[in-house]
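Complex 583.
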Amino acid sequence: MLEFPGQRLRDRYAIAGIGATEFSRDSGRTTRALGVEAVRAAMLDAGLGPGDVDGMLSYHGNDSTASPVIAGDLGIRLNFYMDCSGGGSSIEALIGLAMGAIEAGMCRTVATFRAMNGYTGNRIGGTGRQAPVFTGLSLDQGIHGMHSAAQSFAPSFMRHMYEYGTTSKQVAHVKVAHSKHASNNPRALYPKRVTVEDVLSSRWITKPLHLLDCCLETDNGVAIIVTSAEHARDLRQRPAYIMGVAGRVNKEQPGGYHWTRGPISRVAGGHAAPIVFGQAGIGPEDVDVTGSYDAFTFTTMLQLEAYGFCKEGEGGDYVSSGIIELGGARPNNTSGGHLCEGYTHGIGHVVENVRQLRHQADDYCPGWAQGQHTYDYSEGGCRQVQDVEVTMNLGWASPSTGSALIMHN
Amino acid sequence: MTPHSGSQYLGADVAVASNDPEHLQFLEAAGRGEFVLQQCAECERLRYPIGNACPFCMALGWQWAAVSGRGTVYSYEVVTHPIHPSFRGLVPYVIVLVELDEQRGVPGEHDALRVLGLLVDAEGNPEPEERAGINVRVQVDFADLGDGLALPRFRLADEPSEFPVWRYGYDGAG
Ligand SMILES: [Zn+2]
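Predicted structure with zinc ion bound:
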């Protein structure tokens, strides 16, 4: 068996810039306009001009604008680009590919983006507007009435409840925590704090999922600049150093369906964990802040379990213990995440961890841009975690596809 | 690539491409009242869903093998918010993930032949959620798609469960 390369690239690459458009449900703009604004914002954040970026990566579901168009609009000539189809765990994978492209000498500095009209354009949950024919792969799953991500993933959560006694009430705490964080995020689409009762009394989408267990389809563009650590140190912002990355790790899944093999409540993160922690040379106990993908409340929980933040089966206790809230021992998705800030297909979670590592969470503290925070987490206050040094992103595309990224400041 | 035409499910066309004989033969067998799975010509293991090589030994050769269509519900959900327009009239409906009796615990203790399907009553209407649950015993049932094809679904089997039935929202579960 070939070994993974271990810690050879640890701290050799960094995220040097971040940028985002407004999060809305009525952008009124093309994904091209959103992508251009986000990439430009990330370049300006890093202090880069068009001649300083020569690589570009993006991911999409046939709902974006390709890199050469975005680069062309900004006067960037690319030495390397790739636009790939992919789900929510793509961003960590693309950050790893950016490192690889730079390491291979194909380019020097890479802008990675996701641009989507996730509400007014191509809704991932499906619009129900068309009556598509049943053909090809839909003869295995869609024809049985299983179409959206909620419908596809729900049996994994149901089985977890059966195996371990996990409850909807426990998992509702994920939404409660993320809403608390969003209330201190001026950009959040859903900044209102909610209670466990609010989640449990919201309408059913597919049992065991309520409306408030599901994320917010959003129009947005978000971008990240990856470059060598050496180069990042010369740029405008404090670098977020990459300690480890794992990209698009699968479970065994005949036919590509997550429900075919093994315990379906056990997600792919269990296979990504030894890769990413092995590279970083740390364990879950060393992580200060997590960004666990919250397409749904329970996806956050299943991933925290898979990466060893708690034991298998104890995710319900973990997420309802207060640990994941601001002020708790290891806050999760301090921006409010997909459940409350807005759905970015994963990239927003990485951007938020970069902000945390810079001590520049853009909250309601007047001095946030200078890293001055009150650490008062009451509504309309601070969302910066005190003394944060190590963050981790737990990316998700499905129960059988996950990615991860560990960074430090 | 001209699709097989003339078949419909819930008012939507079922169009199996002419270069997809595996799905066509699967639905044709169901049309004859047989529930068939691919069986590897080398290791003889069954597999589901349809695939182009054996996920256990990588062999390409296979043949159809009929199975009993009896199994146990491994997980399920109750869909209340439909996406595909054809399912709007059906909500709430239960989708069951069934472990077939054949090849349970193979190759690993947590593996099985898992099959998705709508849980329906004798008339083909969705069973109410209080009749569904993990560990419920089910058997295959066929929905006629027209033009010789049918779709395997599941109905309750008149036999006791091996383990206690677990239902979300009942007896404190979930
Ligand atoms: Zn075989």
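Chain B touches chain A through 54 residues (CB under 8 Å).
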